[in-house]
Write a structure and sequence with these properties.
By secondary structure, this protein is mainly α. Helices cover 72% and strands 0% of the residues. Helix 16 packs parallel to helix 18 (443-462).
Protein backbone atom coordinates (compact mmCIF):
# COMPACT_ATOMS: atom_id res chain seq x y z
CA UNK A 1 0.00 0.00 0.00
CA UNK A 2 2.85 2.36 0.88
CA UNK A 3 4.65 1.64 -2.43
CA UNK A 4 1.42 2.26 -4.34
CA UNK A 5 0.95 5.55 -2.54
CA UNK A 6 4.52 6.65 -3.36
CA UNK A 7 4.10 5.66 -6.99
CA UNK A 8 0.89 7.65 -7.21
CA UNK A 9 2.60 10.72 -5.78
CA UNK A 10 5.44 10.38 -8.25
CA UNK A 11 2.98 9.99 -11.12
CA UNK A 12 1.14 13.10 -10.13
CA UNK A 13 4.46 14.94 -9.77
CA UNK A 14 5.53 13.97 -13.30
CA UNK A 15 2.13 14.57 -14.85
CA UNK A 16 2.12 17.98 -13.23
CA UNK A 17 -1.54 18.05 -12.17
CA UNK A 18 -1.28 18.82 -8.45
CA UNK A 19 2.39 19.80 -8.00
CA UNK A 20 3.64 21.46 -11.19
CA UNK A 21 0.54 23.28 -12.36
CA UNK A 22 1.86 26.56 -11.01
CA UNK A 23 5.21 26.04 -12.74
CA UNK A 24 3.51 25.24 -16.05
CA UNK A 25 1.36 28.36 -15.83
CA UNK A 26 4.40 30.51 -15.05
CA UNK A 27 6.32 29.00 -17.96
CA UNK A 28 3.43 29.64 -20.33
CA UNK A 29 3.17 33.21 -19.09
CA UNK A 30 6.90 33.77 -19.61
CA UNK A 31 6.71 32.35 -23.14
CA UNK A 32 3.77 34.61 -23.87
CA UNK A 33 5.68 37.64 -22.61
CA UNK A 34 8.77 36.76 -24.65
CA UNK A 35 6.70 36.19 -27.78
CA UNK A 36 4.91 39.50 -27.29
CA UNK A 37 8.20 41.36 -26.84
CA UNK A 38 9.61 39.79 -29.99
CA UNK A 39 6.46 40.72 -31.90
CA UNK A 40 6.75 44.34 -30.76
CA UNK A 41 10.54 44.66 -30.98
CA UNK A 42 12.20 42.01 -33.20
CA UNK A 43 15.77 43.03 -32.41
CA UNK A 44 18.89 40.90 -31.73
CA UNK A 45 19.58 42.87 -28.54
CA UNK A 46 16.37 41.43 -27.09
CA UNK A 47 17.60 37.89 -27.81
CA UNK A 48 20.91 38.63 -26.10
CA UNK A 49 19.13 40.16 -23.10
CA UNK A 50 16.86 37.14 -22.77
CA UNK A 51 19.83 34.81 -23.12
CA UNK A 52 21.70 36.39 -20.22
CA UNK A 53 18.68 36.49 -17.91
CA UNK A 54 19.36 33.01 -16.44
CA UNK A 55 23.01 33.97 -15.92
CA UNK A 56 21.93 37.22 -14.26
CA UNK A 57 19.56 35.31 -12.01
CA UNK A 58 22.39 32.94 -11.03
CA UNK A 59 24.65 35.89 -10.19
CA UNK A 60 21.90 37.50 -8.13
CA UNK A 61 21.43 34.33 -6.09
CA UNK A 62 25.05 33.33 -5.57
CA UNK A 63 27.04 36.58 -5.79
CA UNK A 64 24.68 39.10 -4.23
CA UNK A 65 27.04 40.39 -1.57
CA UNK A 66 30.13 40.73 -3.84
CA UNK A 67 28.11 42.85 -6.30
CA UNK A 68 26.79 45.17 -3.59
CA UNK A 69 30.22 45.28 -1.95
CA UNK A 70 31.81 46.18 -5.28
CA UNK A 71 29.48 49.16 -5.65
CA UNK A 72 30.20 50.30 -2.08
CA UNK A 73 33.98 50.02 -2.54
CA UNK A 74 33.98 51.94 -5.83
CA UNK A 75 31.65 54.62 -4.47
CA UNK A 76 33.46 55.12 -1.18
CA UNK A 77 37.09 54.79 -2.25
CA UNK A 78 36.52 56.47 -5.65
CA UNK A 79 38.61 53.80 -7.39
CA UNK A 80 37.74 55.16 -10.84
CA UNK A 81 39.20 58.53 -9.80
CA UNK A 82 42.31 57.02 -8.26
CA UNK A 83 42.82 55.13 -11.57
CA UNK A 84 41.44 57.58 -14.17
CA UNK A 85 41.79 55.02 -16.97
CA UNK A 86 38.75 53.24 -15.47
CA UNK A 87 36.50 56.30 -15.72
CA UNK A 88 35.22 55.67 -19.29
CA UNK A 89 33.99 52.22 -18.21
CA UNK A 90 31.39 53.79 -15.88
CA UNK A 91 31.95 51.02 -13.36
CA UNK A 92 30.16 52.74 -10.45
CA UNK A 93 27.04 53.12 -12.59
CA UNK A 94 27.17 49.51 -13.79
CA UNK A 95 27.73 48.24 -10.26
CA UNK A 96 24.88 50.43 -9.01
CA UNK A 97 22.51 48.91 -11.57
CA UNK A 98 23.77 45.44 -10.67
CA UNK A 99 23.30 46.10 -6.96
CA UNK A 100 19.74 47.37 -7.46
CA UNK A 101 18.95 44.34 -9.63
CA UNK A 102 20.37 41.98 -6.99
CA UNK A 103 18.34 43.58 -4.21
CA UNK A 104 15.12 43.57 -6.26
CA UNK A 105 15.65 39.96 -7.41
CA UNK A 106 16.37 38.65 -3.92
CA UNK A 107 13.53 40.64 -2.34
CA UNK A 108 10.69 40.21 -4.84
CA UNK A 109 11.48 37.19 -7.03
CA UNK A 110 13.62 34.76 -5.04
CA UNK A 111 12.16 36.10 -1.77
CA UNK A 112 15.08 34.69 0.21
CA UNK A 113 16.43 38.00 1.50
CA UNK A 114 16.60 37.70 5.26
CA UNK A 115 14.81 40.86 6.37
CA UNK A 116 15.17 42.04 9.93
CA UNK A 117 14.80 45.35 11.69
CA UNK A 118 16.46 47.10 14.61
CA UNK A 119 16.45 50.41 16.43
CA UNK A 120 19.35 51.75 14.35
CA UNK A 121 17.40 51.11 11.13
CA UNK A 122 14.44 52.99 12.60
CA UNK A 123 16.61 56.00 13.42
CA UNK A 124 18.33 55.82 10.02
CA UNK A 125 14.97 55.74 8.23
CA UNK A 126 13.62 58.58 10.35
CA UNK A 127 16.68 60.70 9.58
CA UNK A 128 16.37 59.84 5.87
CA UNK A 129 12.72 60.93 5.91
CA UNK A 130 13.64 64.20 7.63
CA UNK A 131 16.25 64.89 4.95
CA UNK A 132 13.67 64.06 2.28
CA UNK A 133 11.02 66.32 3.80
CA UNK A 134 13.55 69.15 3.95
CA UNK A 135 14.19 69.11 0.19
CA UNK A 136 11.26 71.41 -0.79
CA UNK A 137 12.40 73.95 1.82
CA UNK A 138 16.04 74.01 0.70
CA UNK A 139 17.45 77.37 -0.28
CA UNK A 140 18.93 75.87 -3.46
CA UNK A 141 16.58 73.02 -4.39
CA UNK A 142 18.62 72.02 -7.43
CA UNK A 143 21.76 71.37 -5.39
CA UNK A 144 19.79 69.57 -2.68
CA UNK A 145 17.98 67.32 -5.18
CA UNK A 146 21.19 66.52 -7.04
CA UNK A 147 22.96 65.48 -3.82
CA UNK A 148 19.89 63.52 -2.72
CA UNK A 149 19.40 61.55 -5.95
CA UNK A 150 23.04 61.03 -6.88
CA UNK A 151 24.49 60.21 -3.46
CA UNK A 152 22.31 60.13 -0.37
CA UNK A 153 19.47 57.90 -1.54
CA UNK A 154 22.07 55.35 -2.69
CA UNK A 155 23.78 55.53 0.70
CA UNK A 156 20.48 54.84 2.48
CA UNK A 157 19.55 51.87 0.28
CA UNK A 158 23.02 50.32 0.33
CA UNK A 159 23.37 50.72 4.10
CA UNK A 160 20.33 48.54 4.66
CA UNK A 161 21.18 46.16 1.80
CA UNK A 162 24.73 45.62 3.09
CA UNK A 163 23.43 44.74 6.54
CA UNK A 164 20.85 42.32 5.11
CA UNK A 165 23.32 40.55 2.82
CA UNK A 166 26.26 40.38 5.26
CA UNK A 167 25.29 37.16 7.03
CA UNK A 168 28.11 34.62 6.69
CA UNK A 169 31.70 34.39 7.89
CA UNK A 170 32.99 34.65 4.33
CA UNK A 171 31.06 37.91 3.88
CA UNK A 172 32.98 39.49 6.75
CA UNK A 173 36.31 38.21 5.43
CA UNK A 174 35.49 39.44 1.91
CA UNK A 175 34.50 42.87 3.17
CA UNK A 176 37.57 43.25 5.41
CA UNK A 177 39.97 42.20 2.68
CA UNK A 178 38.27 44.41 0.11
CA UNK A 179 38.55 47.46 2.37
CA UNK A 180 42.20 46.71 3.10
CA UNK A 181 43.11 46.24 -0.59
CA UNK A 182 41.19 49.37 -1.59
CA UNK A 183 42.85 51.28 1.25
CA UNK A 184 46.27 50.15 0.01
CA UNK A 185 45.43 51.38 -3.48
CA UNK A 186 44.30 54.81 -2.30
CA UNK A 187 46.99 55.12 0.38
CA UNK A 188 49.74 53.99 -1.98
CA UNK A 189 48.62 56.54 -4.56
CA UNK A 190 48.63 59.27 -1.89
CA UNK A 191 52.16 58.32 -0.80
CA UNK A 192 53.33 58.34 -4.43
CA UNK A 193 51.79 61.77 -5.01
CA UNK A 194 53.50 63.07 -1.88
CA UNK A 195 56.90 61.75 -2.89
CA UNK A 196 56.51 63.02 -6.47
CA UNK A 197 54.93 66.36 -5.38
CA UNK A 198 51.82 65.70 -7.47
CA UNK A 199 48.65 67.68 -6.70
CA UNK A 200 49.92 69.15 -3.44
CA UNK A 201 47.75 71.80 -1.77
CA UNK A 202 49.31 74.69 0.15
CA UNK A 203 52.66 73.35 -0.95
CA UNK A 204 52.72 70.32 1.33
CA UNK A 205 49.27 68.67 1.71
CA UNK A 206 48.73 65.59 -0.44
CA UNK A 207 45.63 65.03 -2.62
CA UNK A 208 44.46 62.60 -5.31
CA UNK A 209 42.75 63.53 -8.58
CA UNK A 210 42.50 67.22 -7.82
CA UNK A 211 42.97 68.08 -11.50
CA UNK A 212 39.87 66.03 -12.45
CA UNK A 213 37.68 67.38 -9.63
CA UNK A 214 37.83 64.23 -7.52
CA UNK A 215 36.35 64.10 -4.03
CA UNK A 216 39.82 62.98 -2.92
CA UNK A 217 41.20 66.29 -4.19
CA UNK A 218 40.49 67.76 -0.74
CA UNK A 219 43.09 66.69 1.88
CA UNK A 220 40.46 66.48 4.62
CA UNK A 221 38.20 64.22 2.55
CA UNK A 222 41.18 62.08 1.56
CA UNK A 223 42.13 61.66 5.23
CA UNK A 224 38.57 60.64 5.98
CA UNK A 225 38.58 57.95 3.29
CA UNK A 226 41.95 56.62 4.46
CA UNK A 227 40.79 56.46 8.07
CA UNK A 228 38.17 53.76 7.41
CA UNK A 229 40.43 50.94 6.08
CA UNK A 230 42.96 51.76 8.81
CA UNK A 231 40.62 50.25 11.41
CA UNK A 232 40.37 46.96 9.51
CA UNK A 233 44.08 46.76 8.74
CA UNK A 234 44.93 47.23 12.41
CA UNK A 235 42.23 44.74 13.40
CA UNK A 236 43.76 42.05 11.16
CA UNK A 237 47.26 42.79 12.50
CA UNK A 238 46.04 42.17 16.06
CA UNK A 239 44.07 39.00 15.24
CA UNK A 240 46.45 36.18 16.25
CA UNK A 241 44.43 33.40 14.60
CA UNK A 242 45.06 34.69 11.09
CA UNK A 243 48.10 33.66 9.07
CA UNK A 244 51.38 35.51 9.48
CA UNK A 245 51.41 36.48 5.81
CA UNK A 246 48.01 38.12 6.03
CA UNK A 247 48.91 39.94 9.23
CA UNK A 248 52.22 41.12 7.75
CA UNK A 249 50.47 42.37 4.63
CA UNK A 250 47.91 44.22 6.78
CA UNK A 251 50.73 45.76 8.82
CA UNK A 252 52.29 47.11 5.60
CA UNK A 253 48.89 48.50 4.59
CA UNK A 254 48.41 50.08 8.03
CA UNK A 255 51.82 51.78 7.85
CA UNK A 256 51.05 53.04 4.35
CA UNK A 257 47.70 54.44 5.43
CA UNK A 258 49.25 55.97 8.55
CA UNK A 259 51.86 57.81 6.50
CA UNK A 260 49.28 58.88 3.92
CA UNK A 261 47.05 60.39 6.63
CA UNK A 262 50.06 62.25 8.04
CA UNK A 263 50.80 63.53 4.53
CA UNK A 264 47.32 65.10 4.30
CA UNK A 265 48.21 67.27 7.33
CA UNK A 266 44.55 67.09 8.32
CA UNK A 267 43.91 67.78 12.00
CA UNK A 268 40.71 65.77 11.87
CA UNK A 269 42.49 62.87 10.21
CA UNK A 270 45.28 62.85 12.80
CA UNK A 271 42.82 62.99 15.69
CA UNK A 272 40.82 60.22 14.03
CA UNK A 273 43.75 57.83 13.69
CA UNK A 274 44.79 58.58 17.28
CA UNK A 275 41.26 57.67 18.37
CA UNK A 276 41.32 54.43 16.38
CA UNK A 277 44.67 53.35 17.81
CA UNK A 278 43.63 54.52 21.28
CA UNK A 279 40.44 52.45 21.20
CA UNK A 280 42.39 49.30 20.27
CA UNK A 281 44.97 50.04 22.96
CA UNK A 282 42.33 50.71 25.63
CA UNK A 283 41.23 47.06 25.63
CA UNK A 284 44.80 45.69 25.50
CA UNK A 285 46.80 47.90 27.88
CA UNK A 286 45.93 47.23 31.52
CA UNK A 287 47.74 50.26 32.98
CA UNK A 288 45.45 53.15 32.00
CA UNK A 289 47.74 55.84 33.43
CA UNK A 290 50.54 54.58 31.21
CA UNK A 291 48.10 54.44 28.29
CA UNK A 292 46.94 58.05 28.59
CA UNK A 293 50.45 59.33 29.22
CA UNK A 294 51.75 57.52 26.18
CA UNK A 295 48.82 58.76 24.10
CA UNK A 296 49.55 62.39 25.04
CA UNK A 297 53.20 62.03 24.10
CA UNK A 298 52.32 60.21 20.86
CA UNK A 299 49.80 62.92 19.90
CA UNK A 300 52.39 65.66 20.40
CA UNK A 301 55.01 63.80 18.37
CA UNK A 302 52.49 62.99 15.64
CA UNK A 303 51.44 66.60 15.17
CA UNK A 304 55.07 67.65 14.95
CA UNK A 305 55.93 64.90 12.47
CA UNK A 306 52.84 65.68 10.39
CA UNK A 307 54.10 69.21 9.86
CA UNK A 308 50.90 70.97 10.87
CA UNK A 309 52.98 74.03 11.80
CA UNK A 310 54.33 74.17 8.23
CA UNK A 311 50.91 74.46 6.64
CA UNK A 312 50.16 77.63 4.68
CA UNK A 313 46.87 77.88 6.58
CA UNK A 314 46.76 77.06 10.26
CA UNK A 315 50.53 76.89 10.58
CA UNK A 316 52.96 78.33 13.07
CA UNK A 317 53.46 81.46 10.94
CA UNK A 318 50.02 82.72 11.97
CA UNK A 319 49.88 84.37 15.35
CA UNK A 320 47.09 83.82 17.88
CA UNK A 321 44.12 81.85 16.59
CA UNK A 322 45.21 80.87 13.10
CA UNK A 323 43.25 81.46 9.92
CA UNK A 324 42.11 77.85 9.66
CA UNK A 325 40.71 77.85 13.21
CA UNK A 326 39.02 81.23 12.77
CA UNK A 327 37.47 80.05 9.53
CA UNK A 328 35.95 77.08 11.35
CA UNK A 329 34.61 79.30 14.13
CA UNK A 330 32.95 81.61 11.59
CA UNK A 331 31.50 78.58 9.77
CA UNK A 332 30.16 77.03 12.97
CA UNK A 333 28.57 80.33 13.93
CA UNK A 334 26.90 80.46 10.53
CA UNK A 335 25.65 76.86 11.01
CA UNK A 336 24.10 77.80 14.33
CA UNK A 337 22.35 80.74 12.70
CA UNK A 338 20.95 78.51 9.96
CA UNK A 339 19.54 76.08 12.53
CA UNK A 340 18.02 78.87 14.64
CA UNK A 341 16.24 80.37 11.61
CA UNK A 342 15.19 76.94 10.27
CA UNK A 343 14.81 74.72 13.36
CA UNK A 344 12.60 72.06 11.77
CA UNK A 345 14.18 71.52 8.35
CA UNK A 346 17.49 73.41 8.28
CA UNK A 347 18.65 75.03 5.05
CA UNK A 348 18.50 71.77 3.11
CA UNK A 349 20.85 69.00 2.04
CA UNK A 350 24.25 70.23 0.80
CA UNK A 351 23.08 73.84 1.15
CA UNK A 352 25.40 75.15 3.85
CA UNK A 353 27.92 76.46 1.32
CA UNK A 354 25.27 78.38 -0.63
CA UNK A 355 23.78 79.97 2.50
CA UNK A 356 27.04 80.92 4.15
CA UNK A 357 26.84 84.56 3.02
CA UNK A 358 23.45 85.12 4.64
CA UNK A 359 24.38 83.76 8.07
CA UNK A 360 28.10 84.36 8.57
CA UNK A 361 29.26 87.14 10.88
CA UNK A 362 32.42 87.53 8.79
CA UNK A 363 32.44 87.83 5.00
CA UNK A 364 35.77 87.68 3.17
CA UNK A 365 34.28 87.50 -0.31
CA UNK A 366 34.03 83.70 -0.44
CA UNK A 367 31.62 81.03 0.77
CA UNK A 368 33.16 78.34 2.97
CA UNK A 369 32.48 74.72 3.93
CA UNK A 370 31.32 73.96 7.47
CA UNK A 371 34.27 71.62 8.34
CA UNK A 372 32.27 69.79 11.01
CA UNK A 373 29.93 66.84 10.81
CA UNK A 374 27.89 67.98 13.76
CA UNK A 375 27.43 71.59 12.69
CA UNK A 376 26.85 70.45 9.11
CA UNK A 377 23.98 68.18 10.11
CA UNK A 378 22.63 70.88 12.43
CA UNK A 379 22.63 73.50 9.68
CA UNK A 380 21.17 71.32 6.93
CA UNK A 381 18.53 69.36 8.88
CA UNK A 382 17.73 71.65 11.82
CA UNK A 383 17.50 70.73 15.48
CA UNK A 384 15.11 67.84 14.83
CA UNK A 385 17.38 66.10 12.33
CA UNK A 386 20.43 66.82 14.45
CA UNK A 387 18.81 65.15 17.48
CA UNK A 388 17.96 62.03 15.49
CA UNK A 389 21.47 61.88 13.99
CA UNK A 390 23.18 62.21 17.38
CA UNK A 391 20.90 59.52 18.84
CA UNK A 392 21.75 57.20 15.93
CA UNK A 393 25.52 57.73 16.26
CA UNK A 394 25.60 57.34 20.03
CA UNK A 395 23.24 54.33 19.90
CA UNK A 396 25.30 52.30 17.43
CA UNK A 397 28.57 53.22 19.19
CA UNK A 398 27.24 52.04 22.56
CA UNK A 399 25.82 48.85 21.01
CA UNK A 400 29.06 47.99 19.24
CA UNK A 401 31.04 48.73 22.40
CA UNK A 402 28.80 46.46 24.49
CA UNK A 403 29.18 43.70 21.89
CA UNK A 404 32.97 44.03 21.97
CA UNK A 405 33.07 43.89 25.77
CA UNK A 406 30.73 40.90 25.85
CA UNK A 407 32.41 38.80 23.15
CA UNK A 408 36.06 39.93 23.12
CA UNK A 409 37.21 36.74 24.86
CA UNK A 410 34.90 34.36 22.97
CA UNK A 411 35.82 32.16 20.01
CA UNK A 412 34.26 34.26 17.26
CA UNK A 413 35.38 33.48 13.69
CA UNK A 414 38.55 35.49 12.95
CA UNK A 415 37.12 38.05 10.53
CA UNK A 416 33.93 38.43 12.53
CA UNK A 417 36.18 39.23 15.48
CA UNK A 418 38.02 41.75 13.27
CA UNK A 419 34.71 43.48 12.49
CA UNK A 420 33.60 43.41 16.14
CA UNK A 421 36.89 45.06 17.17
CA UNK A 422 37.03 47.47 14.23
CA UNK A 423 33.57 48.96 14.62
CA UNK A 424 33.94 50.69 18.01
CA UNK A 425 37.40 51.93 16.97
CA UNK A 426 36.11 53.19 13.62
CA UNK A 427 33.11 54.87 15.19
CA UNK A 428 35.36 56.50 17.81
CA UNK A 429 37.51 57.83 14.98
CA UNK A 430 34.40 59.12 13.23
CA UNK A 431 33.09 60.84 16.36
CA UNK A 432 36.41 62.59 17.07
CA UNK A 433 37.36 63.46 13.49
CA UNK A 434 33.78 64.59 12.85
CA UNK A 435 34.58 67.72 14.83
CA UNK A 436 36.81 68.90 11.97
CA UNK A 437 35.66 66.87 8.95
CA UNK A 438 32.32 67.09 7.13
CA UNK A 439 30.96 63.55 6.86
CA UNK A 440 27.31 63.66 7.89
CA UNK A 441 25.98 62.79 4.42
CA UNK A 442 28.85 60.76 2.97
CA UNK A 443 29.70 57.06 3.05
CA UNK A 444 32.03 56.54 6.08
CA UNK A 445 29.56 56.61 8.96
CA UNK A 446 26.80 54.77 7.13
CA UNK A 447 29.15 52.02 5.98
CA UNK A 448 30.36 51.57 9.56
CA UNK A 449 26.72 51.57 10.70
CA UNK A 450 25.86 48.77 8.26
CA UNK A 451 28.82 46.59 9.26
CA UNK A 452 28.23 47.22 12.96
CA UNK A 453 24.59 46.16 12.69
CA UNK A 454 25.55 43.05 10.69
CA UNK A 455 28.30 42.10 13.17
CA UNK A 456 26.07 42.61 16.20
CA UNK A 457 23.30 40.55 14.62
CA UNK A 458 25.75 37.76 13.63
CA UNK A 459 27.22 37.32 17.11
CA UNK A 460 23.86 37.57 18.84
CA UNK A 461 22.31 35.03 16.45
CA UNK A 462 25.16 32.53 16.58
CA UNK A 463 25.94 32.88 20.30
Amino acid sequence: MFELEVATKNFHSVSGKPNNLKSILISCFCCLCVGSLWWILPHPVLVIALAILPFAAYLALHFSFPIVLGFVVFSFFRIHEVIPILSPLKLPLLLALGALYVIAFRAFIARDLNFYWCRSFTLLTLFFLLVTLGLPFAGNRGVAMNMYTSVYIKIYIMTIATSFLMQRQQDFSMASRSFIFAGLLVGGTAVYNKLMSIGLVEGSRVTIGRDIGSVLGDPNDLALVLLFPTTFALGVVLENRLSKKERLFSLIVFMTLFYAIIATQSRGGLLGILSVCGMYAFFRVKNKILLFTGASVAASILFIVAGISDRASGGAAEEGIDESAMGRLYAWGAAWGMAVHNPMTGVGLSNFYYNYYFYSSHWDGLNHAVHSTWFGVLAETGFVGFSVFITMVVGIFVSSLKTLIKYQNSDLPPFVAVAVNAMPAGLAGFIVSGTFLTQGFTWPFYLQLAIAIAAIRYVETHR
